[in-house]
What does this fold into?
Amino acid sequence: MEIYIEFSKWLDKLLGENKMPENTAAFCFNLYEEEDENYGIQLIASDEFDENDGGDWACSEIWSSEEDIFYIDHSDEKDADAERGLEFISGLIRSYLENGKYRSILLGAKAVAAGFIDGDISILNK
It folds into this structure.
């Protein structure tokens, strides 16, 4: 799957070139719906993790990919919505957690999550 290859290259670059803070408790993939029919994905590290706080832990950001955003075009999906987008992107992340070059960095945290910045967060690994 070509999109997974591009996604894993993006993550390999981020995780390979940046030393994550030692006090990283969890990672969150922040998702954005862009106006040009793209989803934007940003990776953050948090020094907090509490599965029961509704995702507020992800606001305690100690590292971010900032403007290094991975974009996925969803213009060809006529019935695309945020829920399906989250499901698709979560699948990419799970694949990386199974096979990615630097998966051990992500798996070394208490949790890996994903969610749209104005919505709920899904815990993908803990």
Summary: The chain has a mean pLDDT of 89. The radius of gyration is 14 Å.
